[in-house]
Design goal:
This protein has one domain. Helices cover 55% and strands 0% of the residues. It has helices spanning 12-18, 27-48, 55-70, 86-92. α2 (27-48) runs antiparallel to α3. The longest helix is centred in the middle third of the chain and has 22 residues, at 27-48. The chain is flat. The termini are far apart.
Length: 94
Amino acid sequence: MFGGTPVKEKSLAGYAKELDVARLKTQADVLDLAAGLEKGAANAYLGIIPAFPDRQLAKLAGQLANDERRRVSREPRCPLEDHEGPLQSLRDDH
């Protein structure tokens, strides 16, 4: 539909190196990584919306972006409520 070339699959070691998992020493480090990945996913869904000629696909991308953002939002049940890092920037733009 949009063309392009799929990215090549990496080995587990390749992903670990790219994500710099050696720096993950604490739970907060892991939560920072997860929050950053969720924010990136939400931004990717939002960025593709204008490219969809089909309004239903655009709507779906918006819903997916919302789902990603809610994972790191200020939900009462969110264990990251007082956590600093990438999560903070998501909470501050309410």
